[in-house]
């Protein structure tokens, strides 16, 4: 069932005609002078424009390359090519429009002719050769002409990294890929305003573009270059895994613009081994950016259910940052990219995903041929606002660092029951250090690369639109595991769509509500069961098989970054209720329990310190305590918490007798605020869980979103406690993964366990 690529969500979601006035926008100003654009999304009237860059780290980039008229440009289906996209008209043109349109697409000039010569004569490469060729030391510090022996060695390393782009092969493969995409997907949508921003960024003189993309499928490496090529942005250089492909397929990808990390570059234990490969790789990155060729870097590995910066993505980011710091280019514009699939027809999703064998040409082509004719829904590609690497580095280097402690120093006192203040401390950035040794950097530079990667990954995930299949999978997995009527499922689908728009995140669909629900269920037909009832309704239930649960979990994971703050807050409330469980009476209800703001903030902060920053999508410029305050604000805004005030006290909204000159709500004492930055009485505020009908279901939904990760932590801790003697790390890791996999298979429904608890219905 095809979906029309409209620019705005239609009025057909009857249950959500207007947003209630119960929610009010509440803006916090963590930085003095920050400009705000507050807008309340109205389903059918307003659709948020996603992808604005960080206003704290790159304030000048936030104001450039963006105009309000870009919001109304709408969407474009990139695979819908007609005779209007060509210079010709007629009956024959309509049948050859794909070939004629691709032949007219412009390809900017590729790498210069003396590209290899520049790399061979670069100072970095010659310095390495002077160390490896002792007889050359007495001639000259810089060799005027490369000897044939080591020149061939340099060219051999360079051939492992890249190959000249074949323009004929690019056009031929683009035509074939366009034919395949039209058979696989209903549409591939691009926002015209986002594309216009990228076009303006590409026109900045002497500044190359580097696209930093999320990775949802192995098809991304072919889809994104095709889209950039079709929009007149040229053919970028695409980063691929060297060991993931056989030599013939690797040679084909190289001629299409693929580049690879040489295997020898990962050796740093031996100073000589891999030194030449690293020198050639670094020189290649500098010359690539000098020639203003666009570069596409994937920040994460495919099939990951949670965002995580991959090792190859870290290495390529380090090369780009090193080229900029070496003065190869005055600046680099970074463009985060988000990709959303209804269903990804991935050639690696089956047996190839778990096997270590490299992919061959036929192992990729045969599954694609079998998938032709099957509907895989829609694709949405979003380009975030480009930001300046020079501005980011300057602001990051000038920022003062707060007190940083290791995770052990932060959480061990909490485990032992000692009350310590965590509000003035941050977790150490050891996790941001280099993931492998393809690029040798100092510790400060590695932390800077890690921050840049986390910042870009957060921007890419934040600008990604949510698909209808993702919403349906989250509802079936985390809210209706036992089954639900189709009429109730349609109502929940509209409710969750409204919540996503309220969080300033876009959706990748439009159309009538019933058509959207049936479209999602059709794509998930292998994971759900439909039962026609005599009452005229349909019972929809997810299948209890392991492949079905895995697929639903993979699609439903797209909603966790949107509700991450509320899910962390809900789990913190759940932890406090569990601690109070032994002291409650048999008739006590969760709504009768009073929670103090200080306890909520401390419990939330412990959870934030425990979870990785890339999983939380917590930007490096945002301190943990400010994030915890934002979590509390969102819990109040969504209605899960209500303020509890004593009758003898003055209402919280009464400000008639307060002296604002002496008690400011925000006082800047440094880069970030501490305990003195907020009102003294704010820590004494108390809250209760809301008694509204839908709040309990929403609370369970939020807890279920984060429960798989927390249960994994719990089982890993139990495994560590049961382990006795030291073991080799590979065997130890394999045993832990086996136990976690077995426990996950034996684990019942988390939501069912919550509903069966009659003493406390929020554990």
From TrEMBL:
Keywords: Acyltransferase, Transferase. GO terms for biological process: fatty acid metabolic process; glycerol-3-phosphate metabolic process; phospholipid biosynthetic process; piRNA processing; triglyceride biosynthetic process. One of its GO terms (molecular function) is glycerol-3-phosphate O-acyltransferase activity. Residues 209-342 form the Phospholipid/glycerol acyltransferase domain. InterPro entries: GPAT/DHAPAT (IPR022284), GPAT/DHAPAT_C (IPR045520), Plipid/glycerol_acylTrfase (IPR002123). The keyword Transferase applies. Pfam families: Acyltransferase (PF01553), GPAT_C (PF19277). It comes from the Eukaryota. One of its GO terms (cellular component) is mitochondrial membrane. This is Glycerol-3-phosphate acyltransferase 2, mitochondrial isoform X4. It comes from Alligator sinensis. The lineage of its organism: Eukaryota, Metazoa, Chordata, Craniata, Vertebrata.
């Amino acid at each position: 069932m095809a979906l029309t690529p409209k620019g705005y969500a239609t009025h057909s979601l009857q249950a959500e005609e207007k947003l209630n006035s119960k929610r009010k926008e509440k803006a916090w100003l963590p930085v003095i002078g920050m400009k705000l654009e507050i807008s309340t999304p109205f389903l059918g009237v307003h659709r948020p424009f996603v992808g604005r860059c960080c206003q704290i780290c790159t304030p000048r980039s936030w104001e450039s390359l963006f105009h309000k008229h870009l919001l109304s440009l709408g969407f474009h289906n990139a695979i819908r090519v007609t005779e209007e996209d060509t210079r010709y008209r007629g009956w024959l043109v309509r049948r050859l429009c794909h070939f004629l349109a691709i032949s007219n697409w412009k390809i900017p000039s590729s790498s210069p002719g003396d590209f290899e010569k520049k790399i061979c004569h670069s100072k970095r490469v010659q310095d390495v050769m002077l160390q490896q060729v002792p007889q050359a030391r007495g001639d000259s510090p810089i060799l005027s002409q490369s000897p044939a022996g080591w020149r061939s060695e340099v060219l051999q390393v360079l051939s492992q990294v890249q190959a000249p782009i074949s323009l004929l092969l690019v056009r031929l493969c683009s035509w074939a890929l366009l034919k395949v995409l039209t058979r696989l997907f209903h549409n591939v949508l691009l926002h015209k305003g986002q594309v216009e921003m990228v076009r303006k960024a590409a026109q900045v003189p002497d500044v190359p573009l580097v696209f930093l993309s999320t990775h949802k499928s192995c098809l991304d490496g072919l889809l994104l270059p095709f889209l950039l090529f079709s929009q007149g942005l040229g053919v970028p250089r695409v980063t691929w895994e060297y060991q993931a492909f056989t030599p013939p397929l690797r040679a084909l990808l190289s001629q299409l613009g693929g580049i690879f990390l040489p295997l020898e570059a990962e050796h740093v234990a031996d100073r000589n081994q891999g030194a030449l490969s690293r020198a050639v790789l670094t020189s290649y990155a500098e010359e690539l950016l000098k020639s203003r060729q666009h570069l596409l870097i994937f920040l994460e590995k495919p099939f990951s259910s949670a965002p995580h910066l991959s090792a190859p993505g870290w290495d390529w980011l380090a090369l780009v940052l090193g080229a900029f710091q070496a003065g190869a280019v005055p600046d680099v514009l970074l463009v985060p990219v988000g990709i959303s699939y209804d269903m990804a027809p991935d050639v690696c999703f089956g047996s190839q995903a778990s096997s270590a064998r490299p992919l061959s040409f036929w192992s990729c082509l045969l599954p694609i041929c079998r998938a032709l004719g099957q509907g895989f829904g829609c694709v949405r590609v979003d380009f975030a606002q480009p930001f300046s690497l020079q501005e980011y580095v300057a602001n990051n280097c000038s920022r003062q660092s707060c007190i940083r402690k290791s995770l052990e120093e932060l959480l061990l006192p909490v485990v032992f029951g000692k009350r310590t203040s965590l509000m003035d401390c941050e977790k150490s950035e050891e996790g941001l250090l280099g993931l492998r040794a393809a690029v040798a950097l100092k510790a400060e530079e590695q932390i800077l690369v890690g921050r840049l990667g986390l910042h870009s990954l957060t921007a890419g995930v934040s600008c990604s639109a949510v698909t209808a299949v993702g919403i349906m999978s989250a509802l079936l997995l985390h809210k209706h595991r036992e089954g639900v009527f189709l009429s109730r499922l349609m109502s929940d689908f509209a409710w969750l769509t409204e919540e996503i728009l309220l969080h300033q995140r876009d959706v990748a669909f439009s159309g009538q509500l019933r058509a959207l629900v049936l479209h999602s269920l059709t794509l998930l037909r292998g994971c759900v069961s439909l039962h026609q009832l005599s009452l005229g309704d349909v019972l929809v239930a997810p299948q209890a098989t392991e492949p079905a649960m895995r697929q639903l979990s993979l699609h439903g994971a797209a909603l966790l970054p949107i509700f991450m703050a509320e899910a962390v807050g809900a789990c913190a409330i759940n932890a406090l209720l569990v601690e109070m469980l032994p002291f409650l009476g048999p008739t006590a209800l969760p709504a009768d329990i009073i929670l103090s703001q200080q306890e909520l903030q401390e419990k939330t902060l412990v959870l934030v310190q425990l979870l990785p920053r890339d999983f939380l999508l917590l930007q490096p410029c945002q301190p943990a305590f400010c994030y915890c305050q934002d979590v509390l604000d969102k819990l109040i805004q969504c209605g899960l918490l209500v303020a509890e005030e004593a009758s003898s006290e003055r209402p919280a909204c009464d400000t008639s007798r307060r002296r604002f000159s002496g008690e400011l709500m925000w006082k800047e004492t440094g880069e970030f605020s501490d305990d003195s930055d907020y009102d003294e009485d704010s820590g004494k505020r108390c809250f209760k869980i809301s008694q509204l009908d839908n709040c309990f279901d929403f609370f369970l939904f939020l807890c279920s979103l984060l429960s798989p990760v927390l249960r994994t932590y719990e089982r890993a801790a139990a495994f560590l406690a049961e382990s006795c003697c030291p073991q080799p790390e590979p065997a130890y890791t394999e045993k832990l993964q086996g136990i976690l996999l077995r426990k996950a298979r034996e684990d019942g429904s988390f939501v069912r366990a919550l509903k069966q608890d009659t003493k406390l219905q929020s554990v």
